[in-house]
Design brief:
The protein has 84 residues and is low in regular secondary structure. The protein has 2 helices and no strands.
Length: 84
Amino acid sequence: SIGEHYNPRGSPHGSPDNAPDARHAGDLGNIRADETGRATFRFVDPLLDVWHIIGRSVAITANADDMGRGGNERSRIDGNAGER
């Protein structure tokens, strides 16, 4: 219900390390939870300003994002990361 990745430039899915035209602005990478399921993280991204993210959501998925490098049809859409 939160919609697709934030993608104002119509770019393919990718990694935070990709150039702006080679990734969604909302492609922020993976986080890692500890054995209790708790995660603490901080993202600093040159493509985003605070007003780009106000009112938006962060999706946590079942699997790691393959950053568009997985070689399957879901890879270039959402990193084949599984259910939210």
